[in-house]
Design goal:
By secondary structure, the protein is mainly α. The protein has one domain (2-18, 39-97). It is 81% helix and 0% strand. The protein contains six helices and no strands. The model is unreliable at 4-13 and 15-38 (pLDDT under 50). It holds the Pfam family DUF2388.
């Protein structure tokens, strides 16, 4: 019983956050405003936005792979040599530790 409640909670959290995250990201991209200094904050946003997906991934032992986690893993591997050597689970745990 407890296990099914935990699984439901893990699955429900990313879905509820998706709507608010989508609304915020689409509103920002529709404005077309950007600056040269925003790229590093955009990179940080990719990683921060993936924390809920990373939690679901770690809790499910890799069974649940969200789109935000996939984007963050790709970004981390493109920007850091150490991340290229780490497993997906190790990177997901490091996202949660930030």
């Amino acid at each position: 019983m407890t296990r099914s409640i935990l699984l439901f909670a893990v699955l429900a959290l990313p879905l509820s956050a998706f709507a608010s995250s989508f609304a915020g990201s689409s509103a920002g991209s529709a404005s077309g405003a950007s600056s040269a200094g925003s790229s590093s904050s955009d990179d940080d946003k990719v990683v921060v936005d993936a924390r809920e997906d990373a939690a679901a991934f770690v809790a499910s032992d890799g069974a649940i792979r969200g789109a935000r986690l996939e984007a963050a893993l790709l970004h981390l591997r493109e920007t850091g040599a150490a991340a290229r050597e780490a497993s997906d689970l190790q990177l997901a745990r490091s996202l949660l530790a930030r």
